[in-house]
Design goal:
The chain is 26% helix and 21% strand. It is α+β, with helices and mostly antiparallel strands. The protein has one domain (71-273): Aromatic compound dioxygenase (Protocatechuate 3,4-Dioxygenase, subunit A), CATH 2.60.130. The strands form three sheets. The protein has a five-stranded mixed sheet, with no helix packed on it. A four-stranded mixed sheet has the order 4-1-11-10, with no helix packed on it. Strand 7 and strand 8 form a beta hairpin. The longest helix is centred in the first third of the chain and has 21 residues, at 23-43. The chain is globular, with a radius of gyration of 22 Å. It starts with 5 loop residues before the first helix and ends in a 9-residue tail after the last strand.
Length: 282
């Protein structure tokens, strides 16, 4: 009986792509297939295990809707989203760090005036006054930057997950003033579990991992001539800062709210954008 030539299978698959007109697609698949085939050989993957993997990916796709992207969750919990982010958004010294985009961005929201509340209904939570500035790497204020923000309600759900919340609740857009400043009123965010009733939750359970994210507020900041910044601000002291389910925490993004006399809290944070042409770190 002839011994199978496992390496020949890999090479034949790669050779079949030799005439692919998209050179970048050919490069990515060539490298990706080599690693995939190597992993299958190294683990001596069984047919039953491969069938289970196909079924898992099938169920993951079937769970995706306009409001929920299970594949983004999968990418997040496997650390892939943060790796891609690290490769593509290193802005250099002094530039604000980015983190995962997440699956719950709901599109650009209406512009609100500086200092406006992003709540569309009352909530049980500690009032939080957030003020930020947006500047260049040279320290110059950036006027007219678009600042988009979103966060969960105290029940740990975003409005797109919860039919009881008004559309656009705890979401808003702002433009920075001439001095690069913006401000809004919200409530202190809470830690929450990413959706764990699907394939990603089943995977986390099988791996002995929890699905929790530390309390945070999302920011996406765009301005002409600068690289878009997608990031969070995390709340100091949260129990999940060291074990974020999606690996998104960076120490520079952890803030400690200051207590005010009226019992509310305040946070100030300086965001710094990289030039659009800033070089990338390898």
């Amino acid at each position: 009986m002839t011994k199978p030539d496992f390496a020949a299978i890999t090479e034949a698959t790669i050779d079949r792509m030799a005439e692919a007109p998209n050179a970048r697609l050919r490069e990515i698949l060539t490298i990706g297939l080599r690693h995939l085939h190597d992993a299958i050989r190294e683990t001596r993957l069984t047919e039953t295990e491969w069938d289970a993997a196909i079924a898992f990916l099938t169920r993951t796709g079937q769970m995706c809707t306009a409001e929920r992207q299970e594949f983004i969750l999968l990418s997040d919990v496997l650390g892939v989203s943060m790796l891609v982010d690290a490769l593509n958004h290193a802005g250099g010294e002094g530039v604000s760090e980015s983190t995962v985009f997440g699956p719950f961005y709901a599109g650009r929201q209406p512009l609100l005036a500086a200092g406006a509340s992003i709540l569309k209904r009352p909530e049980e939570g500690t009032p939080l006054h957030l003020r930020g500035t947006v500047s260049s790497a040279l320290g110059l204020p950036i006027a007219g930057a678009l600042v988009e923000v979103w966060q969960t309600a105290p029940n740990g759900l975003y409005d797109v997950q919860d039919q009881e919340q008004p559309v656009g609740h705890l979401r808003a857009s702002f433009e920075t003033a001439a001095d690069g400043s913006f401000a809004f009123e919200t409530i202190l965010p809470v830690s929450y579990a990413i959706p764990d009733d699907g394939t990603v939750g089943a995977l986390l359970k099988a791996l002995g991992r929890h699905p929790n994210r530390p309390a945070h507020i999302h920011f996406m900041i765009t301005a002409g001539g600068f690289r878009r910044l997608v990031t969070h601000l995390f709340i100091d002291g949260d129990p999940y800062l060291e074990s974020d389910a999606v690996f998104g925490v960076k120490s520079s993004l952890i803030v400690q709210p200051q207590a005010l006399a009226d019992g509310s809290l305040a946070v100030e944070y300086p965001f710094t954008l990289a030039d659009a042409w800033a070089g990338l770190d390898g």
